[in-house]
């Protein structure tokens, strides 16, 4: 991770929060931020119909830019999505249809609106779609205008490309063009919007440097690149992933309570770091909270969960999720705010073995995993430990018309027969 000493307020705070992994021309970039508002962009390819927690660091950096008076640009990659980013993937993505790309782009746009202010006022964020210019390109014009500036030897040296070539799957010519199109995006945004900085994950370093070089060669301008660190938990897990799948930011994809609970489940060693990265709280306060020990660290986790959820879903929804947690875990009440799953009534009329209940809720992925959970004492129905994996669960087991299903101490859903 980079350890440059910055003078500009934005880069100083970005560094203090742990956002900066690597940058090009660090001193010149720092000077650019000192001299006036900087326009920077991050691309979000619509590979799904919602962003997830894995995108949160990029979103927080754009938020920080906005707070410091700079202009963040969120680029929805509905053009580049037609190819698919091969960076550090073991095999090629399946090509999406135009309808899927359009649907996913709409979900990505709504996700971005939850984190950034697009009101058109000073320092307003700007949302653009790269299909607007990429779909107009002709192949020969792209080769003559852009391709001539790319060295195949250098492209082959990118870690993301080299690792794919070392595998049996190889790299298709279609995917090989992705870096060229991403570089074209940078130049298009520089020309149209005065963008001088591209930000991305550390896996995008090669693509970003290629864009910086394209603008220098064709426009005679100095522009910059900045990458963010790959976030893993203290135990080594990739940020945003869990046994239940991606932690989506749209409420229809993931209930607000589950989003809150994801942050509440942060490992003790990560609390201070995640407070700095994923909330707007002052850095000094994040460090104070992260240094708490014993039972007090749980209070810090609740603050992390509420603040991170407020950024994504609004303060009211975050406070409701926090109150739901108190009612559910500390006061033992059945809360209607817990995620609810509909189950066909006839299934409970006939009766289901207990392990099947956990599979139906999605708390586990398989019957084998459910059986192991039960044998380990981590499965509960209406707060009663399940001791027999084959015990029959019927409508008679409902409480207040529902069945609360718990995996461990922190994962809960409600089954409602329909």
TrEMBL record:
Q: Which domain of life is it from?
A: Bacteria
- Organism in which the protein naturally occurs: Candidatus Kirkpatrickella diaphorinae
Q: Where is this motif: 'KMSKS' region?
A: 238-242
The keyword Cytoplasm appears for this protein: yes
- What residue intervals hold the motif 'HIGH' region? 46-55
User: What chemistry does it catalyse, as a reaction equation?
Assistant: tRNA(Tyr) + L-tyrosine + ATP = L-tyrosyl-tRNA(Tyr) + AMP + diphosphate + H(+)
- Record EC number: 6.1.1.1
Name-wise, this protein is: Tyrosine--tRNA ligase
Identify the keywords attached in UniProt to this record, alphabetized: Aminoacyl-tRNA synthetase, ATP-binding, Cytoplasm, Ligase, Nucleotide-binding, Protein biosynthesis, RNA-binding
Q: What class of enzyme is it?
A: ligase
Q: What is its main location?
A: cytoplasm
Family, per entry: Belongs to the class-I aminoacyl-tRNA synthetase family. TyrS type 1 subfamily.
Q: Could you describe the subunit structure of this protein?
A: Homodimer.
**Per its UniProt record, what NCBIfam families does this chain match?**
tyrS
What biological function has been recorded for the protein in this entry? Catalyzes the attachment of tyrosine to tRNA(Tyr) in a two-step reaction: tyrosine is first activated by ATP to form Tyr-AMP and then transferred to the acceptor end of tRNA(Tyr).
- Membrane-traversing stretches: none
Subcellular location, record wording: Cytoplasm
Q: Name one GO molecular function term.
A: tyrosine-tRNA ligase activity
Per UniProt, ATP binds at: 241
Binding positions for L-tyrosine? 41, 178, 182
């Amino acid at each position: 991770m980079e350890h440059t000493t910055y003078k500009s307020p934005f880069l100083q705070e970005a560094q203090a929060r742990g956002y900066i992994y690597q940058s090009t021309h660090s001193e010149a970039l720092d000077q650019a931020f000192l001299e006036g508002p900087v326009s920077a962009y991050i691309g979000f390819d619509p590979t799904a119909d919602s962003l997830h927690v894995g995108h949160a660091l990029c979103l927080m950096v754009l938020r920080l830019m906005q707070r410091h008076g700079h202009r963040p640009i969120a680029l929805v990659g509905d053009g580049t999505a037609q190819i698919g980013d091969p960076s550090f993937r073991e095999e090629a993505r399946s090509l999406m249809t135009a309808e899927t790309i359009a649907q996913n782009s709409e979900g990505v746009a709504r996700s971005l609106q939850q984190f950034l202010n697009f009101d058109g006022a000073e320092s307003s964020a700007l949302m653009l779609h790269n299909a607007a210019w990429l779909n107009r390109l002709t192949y020969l014009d792209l080769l003559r205008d852009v391709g001539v500036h790319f060295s195949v030897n250098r492209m082959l040296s990118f870690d993301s490309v080299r690792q794919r070539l070392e595998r049996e799957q190889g790299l298709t010519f279609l995917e090989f063009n992705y870096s060229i199109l991403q570089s074209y995006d940078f130049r298009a945004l520089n020309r149209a919007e005065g963008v001088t900085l591209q930000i991305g994950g550390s896996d995008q370093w090669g693509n970003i440097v290629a864009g910086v070089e394209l603008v220098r060669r064709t426009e005679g301008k100095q522009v910059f690149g900045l990458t963010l660190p790959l976030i893993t938990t203290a135990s080594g897990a990739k940020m945003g992933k869990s046994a239940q799948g991606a932690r989506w930011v749209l409420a229809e994809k993931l209930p607000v309570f589950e989003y809150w609970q994801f942050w509440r489940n942060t490992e003790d060693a990560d609390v201070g770091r995640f407070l700095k990265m994923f909330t707007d709280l002052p850095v000094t306060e994040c460090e104070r909270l992260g240094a708490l020990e014993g039972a007090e660290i749980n209070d810090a986790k609740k603050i992390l969960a509420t603040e991170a959820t407020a950024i994504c879903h609004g303060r009211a929804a975050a406070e409701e999720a926090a109150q739901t947690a108190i009612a559910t875990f500390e006061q033992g009440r059945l809360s209607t705010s817990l995620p609810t799953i509909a189950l066909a009534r006839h299934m409970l009329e006939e009766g289901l073995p207990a392990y099947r209940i956990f599979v139906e809720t999605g708390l586990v992925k398989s019957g084998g995993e459910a059986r192991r959970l039960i044998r380990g004492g981590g499965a509960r129905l209406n707060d009663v430990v399940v001791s027999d994996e084959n015990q029959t669960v019927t409508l008679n087991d409902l409480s207040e018309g529902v069945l609360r299903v718990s995996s461990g101490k922190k994962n809960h859903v409600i089954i409602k027969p329909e």
